[in-house]
Amino acid sequence: MPSFTLPPIHDNPDGGWGPSASNLPDQFKFKDIPYAPYSKSDKLGRFADWNDLSTDTRQTAVGLPSTQATRPVGLGGRRRDGNQAFGSGTASAFAYFHVEDEASFSLVDNKTTAPRRGGPFTRGRGASRTSAAYSVRGSVRGARGGANARGGANQRGGGRRGWRDWDKNNRTRESSVVISPQWSMLEEIEFHRLSKLRLEVDEPEELENYGRLFAYEKSYDRVTTKTERPLQPLDRMKYNPTTSDDPIIQQLAGRNVATVYTTDVILSALMCAPRSVNPWDIVIIREGNNLFLDKRDGGPFDTITVNENAADPPQDPTPANPNNPTEKAVPETPSINSAMSLSLEATYINQNFGFQTVTEHAPPPAVDFSQPNPFYGPDEAEPLASCGYRYRLFDLGITEDEDLKICVRTEVDAYSPGQGNPREGQGLVTIRALNEFDPRAQGAGGAPDWRSKLDSQRGAVVATEMKNNSCKLAKWTVQSVLAGADLLKIGYISRANPRDNTRHVILSTTSIRPTDFAAQLNVSLANGWGIVRTVTDLCMKLPEGKYVLVKDPNKPVIRLYSVPAEAFTNENDNEDGVEEEDEQDSAA
Is the pTM of this model over 0.85? Predict the structure, then answer.
């Protein structure tokens, strides 16, 4: 049977607690470890009590650096009964010091918070994915409909989300022109690079003026939502041919008055390119030392966009997948609130609003420019609309010796009586119109009801339109500045019935100076001229031929392509040529 022998016990001659250092055996393995004092009343259960640890002790325990000496785990800090533990005030030899570089360490939040149902980090339908709460109806927090109430931003079904938000990222726009495999891409420029360009341009030189202007009817400035007027369709002729089809520009090009020739519609689209979202394209023809910027017939410059810059713009129906038989086909008649339908409606409204708001058969009389309308023939049956064409020359040269000028055909729609002589460029007016279709429809962009807000809260309506139609308003402003107009008239036109896109009413009309409106929209003409000069320099380095500048339909990028000379020819002309060849073959 094994025997049990008690180990030797060394009494402390000083009467203290624990062994004495004088009679401690040399072979004792903890000889060189200093002694940490502790209280006799401390219990073993508190040895690993994390709630009683100081912040520095917690950091040290998890491996984070501490800025000061810390106490060993379980021996420091305040006791739960509020008394100071024995020996807690003494410096500990067990403190952890990190001798390496601590610059890469960062303090994390060590506070424990209970997750809240429907909170920002709760996985669930309708839950917000960020910690910021969105504002919803009923802005008082905690109230019914507030940020934390049922249906709020952090609850199920909450958040300011639109219809089919999950599908927005999957929607892709089609290019305004089909990119052929035979085309070669020469340059690609991102919008953020275009936004940094600057070029100051002096006042333009007047070359020639054509057309006839009628006086603007000032009674439309007093129209309110309570005295609305119906929009009347009028048969008038107004021409907007492309640059190469303009006989006056051809004459000016023959005299070599400029290097670049274009129209205000095309030039404003290029100057406001960083604001554009929808696709567009500009045909560029290099002939000798001249550049002609053209638009295609039936292209994006012949219609007006609606809510292009809205967070959820109007959409056209997606064509059905032929490989999926269960998918529904696109209806033959598109919705009146689709992007294409709204664009045609806005174009119709702008034309008729400009025709209706001028005085044709009453004083003050019409004003004729030095030359008649160059596009109106004697065989035309419909009367001519009020329109004046001003051909103006802008100098894009950086130095005095550089000869680089651009000739622009600009348009004005009317003149304001009593503001000076219109023949000398005084009192000229451009007329445009904004349209409201249905505030509750998809693509309305959160616009308020004009009939209830336009008279009392016009600022809110204008701010919403400036946000949803930033590109369109910027182009209208640039066109007015290029034409030298003194005033820009903007009409607010709504549907008589939200479900009927054929009848409209005029709710109000506002008048503003184009330069002041450009400042409100943050439109920089210097940036626009810088973009024009950059594109001109790129094209002047290329050989003679035809090119096309295309805005990517889904990215903020423009690309310059080299295209064959027969590209963008009229299909009707080609069909007529084929028919003539067939007739000649049959006759032979």
Answer: no
